[in-house]
Protein backbone atom coordinates (compact mmCIF):
# COMPACT_ATOMS: atom_id res chain seq x y z
CA UNK A 1 0.00 0.00 0.00
CA UNK A 2 1.36 3.40 -0.96
CA UNK A 3 1.60 5.98 1.75
CA UNK A 4 0.58 9.59 1.33
CA UNK A 5 4.25 10.56 1.44
CA UNK A 6 5.15 8.16 -1.38
CA UNK A 7 2.38 9.34 -3.66
CA UNK A 8 3.07 12.99 -2.88
CA UNK A 9 6.78 12.51 -3.60
CA UNK A 10 5.92 10.86 -6.93
CA UNK A 11 3.62 13.74 -7.85
CA UNK A 12 6.26 16.31 -6.93
CA UNK A 13 8.93 14.39 -8.86
CA UNK A 14 6.64 14.36 -11.89
CA UNK A 15 6.00 18.08 -11.61
CA UNK A 16 9.64 19.08 -11.27
CA UNK A 17 10.80 16.35 -13.63
CA UNK A 18 13.47 15.15 -11.25
CA UNK A 19 16.52 13.89 -13.07
CA UNK A 20 19.39 11.76 -11.86
CA UNK A 21 21.34 12.11 -15.10
CA UNK A 22 24.51 14.20 -15.12
CA UNK A 23 24.11 17.73 -16.50
CA UNK A 24 24.52 18.14 -20.22
CA UNK A 25 24.44 21.03 -22.65
CA UNK A 26 21.28 23.05 -22.17
CA UNK A 27 21.34 22.63 -18.41
CA UNK A 28 21.22 26.09 -16.80
CA UNK A 29 23.74 24.95 -14.19
CA UNK A 30 26.50 24.59 -16.78
CA UNK A 31 28.58 27.60 -17.70
CA UNK A 32 28.57 26.53 -21.37
CA UNK A 33 24.81 26.97 -21.69
CA UNK A 34 23.83 30.24 -23.41
CA UNK A 35 22.27 32.74 -21.01
CA UNK A 36 18.99 33.03 -22.92
CA UNK A 37 18.53 29.27 -22.88
CA UNK A 38 19.49 29.02 -19.20
CA UNK A 39 17.02 31.75 -18.20
CA UNK A 40 14.23 30.03 -20.11
CA UNK A 41 15.03 26.67 -18.51
CA UNK A 42 15.19 28.22 -15.03
CA UNK A 43 11.81 29.87 -15.61
CA UNK A 44 10.31 26.47 -16.53
CA UNK A 45 11.85 24.89 -13.43
CA UNK A 46 10.55 27.71 -11.23
CA UNK A 47 7.04 27.24 -12.57
CA UNK A 48 7.24 23.50 -11.92
CA UNK A 49 8.41 24.13 -8.36
CA UNK A 50 5.52 26.54 -7.81
CA UNK A 51 3.09 23.84 -8.93
CA UNK A 52 4.77 21.31 -6.63
CA UNK A 53 4.51 23.66 -3.66
CA UNK A 54 0.81 24.16 -4.41
CA UNK A 55 0.32 20.37 -4.49
CA UNK A 56 2.05 20.04 -1.13
CA UNK A 57 0.02 22.91 0.34
CA UNK A 58 -3.23 21.27 -0.80
CA UNK A 59 -2.27 17.98 0.81
CA UNK A 60 -1.31 19.70 4.06
CA UNK A 61 -4.60 21.61 4.02
CA UNK A 62 -6.55 18.37 3.49
CA UNK A 63 -4.71 16.67 6.35
CA UNK A 64 -5.30 19.65 8.63
CA UNK A 65 -9.02 19.59 7.86
CA UNK A 66 -9.19 15.87 8.76
CA UNK A 67 -7.62 16.46 12.19
Termini separation (Å)?
A: 22 Å
What is the overall number of helices? Answer: 2
Strand percentage lies at: under 5%
Series of H and E elements: HH
Uncertain stretches of 5 or more adjacent residues: none
What is the mean pLDDT? 81
Q: Report the biggest beta sheet as strand number plus sense, adding barrel if it closes.
A: none
Query: Which value, in Å, is the CA radius of gyration?
Result: 16 Å
**General form:** elongated
Please, could you describe this protein's structure?
This protein is mainly alpha-helical and 67 residues long. The protein has a domain at 40-67. Helices cover 67% and strands 0% of the residues. It is built from two helices and no strands. The protein has helices spanning 4-16, 35-66. Helix 1 packs antiparallel against helix 2 (35-66). The longest helix has 32 residues, at 35-66. It is elongated. The chain starts with a helix and ends with a helix. The model has no long low-confidence stretch (mean pLDDT 81).
Amino acid sequence: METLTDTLMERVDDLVQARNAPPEWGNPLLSTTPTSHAVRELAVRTEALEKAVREIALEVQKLSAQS
